[in-house]
Every structure is written in C-alpha cells, then in structure tokens.
Amino acid sequence: MTAAAVSSEIRTPPRVVLPHLSRAQRESLAALAPCVLRGAPPGTEPASEFVARCDARLELLPAHRRAQLGLALDVLGGRTSVLLAIGKATRFASLAENDQARCFDRWLNSALAPLRSASHSVRRLLLAVHYARPEVTEAIGYAGPMHLRSPRVSWEGPMVGISRADEPVARGEISLPTIIAPAPLPRGVIPAVAMRADLHRTADVVVIGTGAGGAVTAARLAEAGFSVVVLESGAYRTRADFDEREAELTEQLYADGALRTTDDASVALVQGNTVGGSTTVNWMIMLRTPDFVLDQWASESGVYGMTPREMSAVFERVEREVHASAVPEDAHSANNRILLDGARSLGWKVSTAQINATNCVRCGFCGVGCRHDAKQSTLVTFVPRALTAGATLHADTHVDRIEVRERDTGAGTPPLKRVHATVRDPYSGRPARALTIDAPIVVVAGGAIGTPALLQRSGLGGGGVGQWLRLHPTTAVWGRYDHEIVTSTGIPLTTMCDEHLRWRGTDFGFWIETPPMHPSFTAAAMPGFGRSHRELMSSFNQLGVLIGLTRDGAERSRSSGRVRVNRRGETSIEYALTREDQRRVRASLSATAQLHFAAGAREVGTMHSTPIVVRAAADVARLEEGSVGPNRIGLFSAHVNGTCRMGTDPSTSGATPEGERHGVRGLYISDGSLLPTALGVNPQETIMAVATVLAERMAMRHAGVTRN
C-alpha cells in the first residue's frame, strides 16, 4: 500500500457503531427529548433516528462512562425519581407536558446530587446532538463553515492592507479553497492500517503523547540524536480533515468524543485527542507563566533553574518557534471588543494577546483544527521537526502499561522499560494489533488524566500520582446585545483581562477571556431546557460570552481533585471547589458582568441551572448569590493540570524537579500534569517551555549512554 493510498484510506473511516443503550434506556431518552427540546427548531429525522444518534454519540466514551449515562436514564425513566420531584408515582413518559417541565426542573435543581448529575448529563447529550443538525443550526442563524461562503462580518476573513512579517493575520486578497486534497503521509508516520501484524521494536526514547509537552520533548531529543518513537492515542489528521463541521470534528478531535467530565458530571473537561493534542484544537493564546508563580514553584516545590530570569530566554525561544505575535488592533472580533472596550472603560488591566499563528484568516474554527494551517500547533511545528530528525510516530495507539524490565543498578544506562500498546482499528476503534517497544527512557505526556492513569495501571503510582488535580475552573456569563456579536466568527481569543488575577492581594484570583461559540457546544453549555433554552438560542448571534477562569489551589495544603484507576481498570476523575475557590468563582461572575454592561449589554445572565439575569450594572452583585456547588452552575476546564506535579517530596509530588518519576530512573513526565500549581494563565506556553528545559537536561544527562 502506497503512502498516498494509506493517507486516503485513513481520512474519514466509516465507523461501525453498535447500540449501547438498552431498549428501556432508549425509551427513556425518547420520553425526555421532547421536554428538553420543547420549542427548539425541529430536526427532520424521526424520533427513533434521533435517539439512535444520541446512542451513537456515546461510542467514544469509556465503557464505564457509557454505563453511568445508561444508569442515569434508568433513574430518570423510573417512578421513584418522579415521585421525589413532584410527588407523583408514575413514569416521566406518562406525565402531562407541564408536569414534565416541572419535574425536569426539579431534577436539575434537586438537593439530591445524583439526580442533578443524571439530569444534567442527559440534558447536555440531547442538546448537543440536536443542535448538531444543519437544519437546526440554520434556523438560529448560524453562519456555518467560512470556506463555503463569503465573510459575513468585518472581523472574519483576511484583512485589508499589506501583510507585515510580524503579524499573525493574513491581509489582502486570499482565496479560500472549498476542497483540500489529502497530502501523502510524512515519512515516519505509521498509520494503524499499515500495521499488518504485531510489532516488537526498540528505541532510545519512547514519548507517549504529542501535545505541548510530548511533541516538544520528542523534537528536542530527536534533534539531539536519540532514536525516538512517539505514540499518540488520537488519529493523525491534517488540514484536509478540518472541514469546519463543528459537531463531527468535536467528536473526532476531543477526549471521550468531547463528553469527558468529572465523575459527578459537574465539570466538563475539554482536552484534545489527536496528533498535536490540545494544541490542535485550542484558541492559540500564548501567555508566559507569571513571575510570582515561578517564584512559588521554587520556594514551595524545590523547582530549580526556572526562575523568571532563567525562563525569559526560554519563553522567547518557544515564541519564535511557534511564530507567536500580537494581534493587531483592527483584527479583534466583536466578542473580543466586549472585553477590550469594557475593561478600558472600567480602567481595568487588559491586554491584546499573542497568538501562535501565521496568515490567520479569522475563520473562527480554531476549536476543530485549522483548515488553513495558520495555527502553529505542534501538529505543524514540533511533530514535523521530530519526524524530520528521524522520529517515528504511531497514531491511534493506546498505551496499556509500562513495565520496568531490569533492576536499577544506579549506574550507566537507566533500566530497560517495555511499553505495551494497542493499535486501534480506525474503522471500529477496537483493538487491532499489539505494539511493544523496549527503551531505557520513556517520557509520559498523556495529559493530567492520561498520565496518572497510565502510571497507576503500570503499578508505578502512589505518593502524589493522581493527586492535586487543578482545573482553572471556568464559568461563563452571557450578555444580550442590540447588535450582532456572532461569537462563531473571527479569531476566538485575542484579549485577556487580568485585573483580578491577584484578587484581594492574594496570589490566587481569576482572569477573563472570550470563547468561540458554535451551536452544538453552545447548546450543551447554555443553561436551562425547553422554552427558556430555546429563547437563549434564538438570540445566538446577539449573545456575547465572556469566561472567568479561576486560579484554583488557594488552600495550598488541600488536593481538591484526583485521578485514580480502580481494580476494574476504570479511570475516576474527582474534583470539588474548595471554599476559597468558590469565593473566587463567585467574584468572577460579577466582574465579568460589569464588563458586559460597560460594553453596552442590555441584560446579562449566568450559567446556573436557573440563570440569574440582571439588566443593570448596579445589580451585578446578585450574580454572586447563586450556588456554585456541583451541578448548580455550568463549569468547564480546558486547562487540566497537576496530578504528577514536580517536587522534592514523593508523598506530595509525582516527579522530581527534573521531571523524573520518583524512584524510577529513566521514566519522565512532560505535560500539564507536571505543573506544581495552577498557573493563572492559559498553559500552552508554560508546558512548551518547561518541556524544553527538561528535555535538554535529559539529553545532557543521557548523552552517549542510550544511543542505539
């Protein structure tokens, strides 16, 4: 099979999806759907096909997560849950329309945490699937893929004028092709379809993961002369695959098909699962680690060689390598202008961001891969560099465990390790071939969920592994405007307000940014159901949305979250806001609302189960009155960090300040799990910079010892 044929074969494989829900569970879903979607633009398929699409949406969830959602449907479909909510011992399907609405609302706001979790999980699934339909998105005025139309607003598409070398945005007349032909796979990429038999091989280094940490590490070590094999659980996709179809690409490019949450479903976890990891799907902002955070790492965790002065040159180098530069003043979208103009009006600190882009056409689809190869993710920077230097990449490859094969003598080459992996069939997602690699050096960069889970499955957990999960818990405040904002268009994130980053004189506060909002994600995130939800979605293009991100961990001695693998091999993700974190999340609500009103919003609302809505700046304090407990308010995180943090104490950290797993020589960690604390800024640049420092230390430490 030629490289071109392999490339074509793996582009859009027709997945074989089998039903996951029982007949009774599908019946429950069919009964709940009309209540949740009441008043929403209608889809065109029969109800049975809609339920089948919901069932298929669960394909990418781990089996135990699918079982949890099935249990939620069993609970909501039974008589007991209805009796607890409205005092009627009957099934939900038998209730009158008004009683159904009253019952579902009681579930969403129930004092019983399992009922809140179950109802919110089902609500999000139904809304995400419904608003993935083209006829539904058209009804709310969604602009859709930009490459299939002319720019609709002034803040999307190439800009007028002559391009400058230091600008990330394209200027002048640029043709946007409607069809991009697949390119042959680069040398060194081995797709799953090319694996005709089990494979056992050797290398100097195995790197597990291709995100901001893994890809940087792989490139640095390959360029230093080490033989490197890179393993990635996600698929290898390129610009030809990124066709700006929000719903389909979200399923393909995110962990658990974008349905990953904490165990209680209270925090949605947004992580990439593709070559390039989250750098392929993030919003491009590049922010340096605050000096006070680096100082905290040194004083509290024993991290050395990463002072603000020492890291300055590293940040500069990384920024050059990913072409980070400031967004010009005339390139901001309307949603970013809300933040920029509102903060300036209030006299708050606000800045124009640097983004890692070249010739960006402001299409607005950064969250589902860059069709134009403008985003300088690791997919188009460090992964190609690693391949050019001789590295090999296996995509669609799940690492099952790491086995330490030799006793550590403490001298010379680190003990040999065997990485056991399974290559997945891209057509079904099921195991196909076994891949085994022997290497003295293994670098785990699977993210703050995947890394501790792999270590625990390998019997290499304990101590601080899996503890100290930090999420930068994030919630949104929407504002309704009298003019178009169209948050699905333009560069998603070009501004940042850090006025409250050191809230009330502490090192722990919050900052405010802008997200892109496309229909499927927006519908699942927006609060409410039925007619109240419909009313919000009908204003899709007039809604501005700002997000408040909290630097969690103010109670420094407490681990507010953890990742652990149970005896059945299932990964559990637990997280709860501490009291101090709750105070900051609440404060972010009123501050964000002030920005909306300063920018001209006529009303502002929260993501509480029953939104708190105010229509005057004088009333924003009311937004802090609502609960921020589990499933009381919509929370998400795209910054999943901690769980294997650097430190000198093995009982409270997962790795040494060198990034090496305590007690296992030659086993390193290089991803967001390594960060000793939450950052207070988006982590992409920090992870790349830390990976650079640690990779170069590895290369020096093992030079001349492990070469094949």
From TrEMBL:
InterPro entries linked: 4Fe4S_Fe-S-bd (IPR017896), FAD-dep_OxRdtase_2_FAD-bd (IPR003953), FAD/NAD-bd_sf (IPR036188), GMC_OxRdtase_N (IPR000172), GMC_OxRtase_C (IPR007867)
Keyword Protein transport tagged: no
UniProt entry keywords in alphabetical sequence: FAD, Flavoprotein, Oxidoreductase
Domain 4Fe-4S ferredoxin-type residue range list: 351-380
GO molecular function: flavin adenine dinucleotide binding; oxidoreductase activity, acting on CH-OH group of donors
tRNA processing among keywords: no
Family: Belongs to the GMC oxidoreductase family.
Protein name: GMC family oxidoreductase
Organism: Gemmatimonas groenlandica
